[in-house]
Amino acid sequence: MKKKSVILREMLNSSKMIYCVGVALPVHAQMAEEAGFQAVQISGSSATVETHGLPDAGLITMSEMVDNVRN
Fold it and tell me: Do residues 10 and 16 make contact, with C-beta atoms less than 8 angstroms apart?
């Protein structure tokens, strides 16, 4: 089985369109996968709203973002 990083690199090097959706939580990524999206992206602002219930004002730390993505 290929590593996800290798799959992503192949997708980026391809001339094909990549269908990507923005997510904030791991459950959103799972739903996107079930819906057939090829990739997801996450932003600090969306993660902050979902995890802290506050607008993005530099409240979420890098380690919290990494933990959120890792989940």
Answer: no
